[in-house]
């Protein structure tokens, strides 16, 4: 039986990325991303916005953990956790959510059994650039 490898990507403190980001497996954000963050299709990746980390844009992925700041909408197709230091300004679309005491959300919590990925031009631009 072979070992499954996981590709982990770290956006470290003092790092700022301007532009959309698409990845697979795991992304840990301690710095700033000014753009949309998206897990590649058919990947069960995880996006983790650490305390002190910030995303200014939409987040789309199956598993999302926020303990930093997000200024945009979140589309968690499997699971989302808003930890105690989470600060979200935008709508959260989810099918399963955990929210810890201290987390702050300025937006709507939108439950659905099956989260549909957004069709806004802002997030769709990732798909067009990949072609």
Largest sheet: 10 strands, parallel
Q: Using the CA coordinates, give the radius of gyration.
A: 14 Å
Q: Percentage of helical residues? A: under 10%
The SSE string, one letter per element, is EEEEEEEEEEEEEEEEH
Q: Low-confidence parts, pLDDT < 50 over ≥5 residues?
A: 121-131
Taken from the alpha-carbon principal axes, the silhouette is globular
Residue share in β-strands: over 45%
**Overall mean pLDDT:** 87
Alpha-beta classification: mainly beta
| Tally of helical runs | 1
The N- to C-terminal Cα distance equals 35 Å
Q: Care to count the β-strands?
A: 16
Give an overview in words:
The protein is mainly beta and about 130 residues long. About 10% of the residues lie in helices and about 45% in strands. The chain is built from 1 helix and 16 strands. The protein has one helix spanning about 120-130, and strands spanning about 10, 15-20, 20-25, 25-30, 30-35, 35-40, 45-50, 55, 60-65, 70, 75-80, 85-90, 90-95, 95-100, 105, 110. The strands form 2 sheets. Strands 1, 3, 4, 6, 7, 9, 11, 13, 14 and 16 form a 10-stranded parallel β-sheet that branches. The chain has a 6-stranded parallel β-sheet with strand order 2-5-8-10-12-15, with no helix packed on it. The chain is globular, with a radius of gyration of 14 Å. The N and C termini lie far apart (about 35 Å).
Question: How are the elements arranged and paired?
Answer:
Blueprint: E1 8-11, E2 16-18, E3 21-23, E4 26-29, E5 32-34, E6 37-39, E7 46-49, E8 54-56, E9 59-66, E10 69-71, E11 74-82, E12 87-89, E13 92-94, E14 97-99, E15 104-106, E16 109-111, H1 121-130
Parallel strand pairs: 1-4, 2-5, 3-6, 4-7, 5-8, 6-9, 7-9, 8-10, 9-11, 10-12, 11-13, 11-14, 12-15, 13-16
């Amino acid at each position: 039986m072979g070992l499954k490898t996981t590709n982990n990507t770290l956006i470290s403190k003092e790092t700022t990325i301007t532009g959309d980001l698409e990845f697979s497996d795991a992304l840990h954000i301690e710095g700033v991303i000014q753009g949309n963050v998206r897990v590649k299709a058919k990947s069960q990746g995880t996006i983790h916005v650490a305390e002190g980390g910030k995303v200014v844009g939409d987040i789309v992925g199956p598993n999302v953990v926020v303990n930093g700041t997000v200024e945009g909408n979140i589309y968690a197709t499997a699971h989302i956790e808003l930890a105690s230091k989470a600060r979200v300004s935008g709508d959260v679309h989810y099918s399963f959510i955990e929210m810890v005491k201290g987390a702050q959300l300025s937006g709507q919590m939108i439950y659905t059994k099956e989260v549909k990925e957004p069709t806004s031009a802002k997030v769709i631009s990732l798909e067009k650039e990949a072609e």
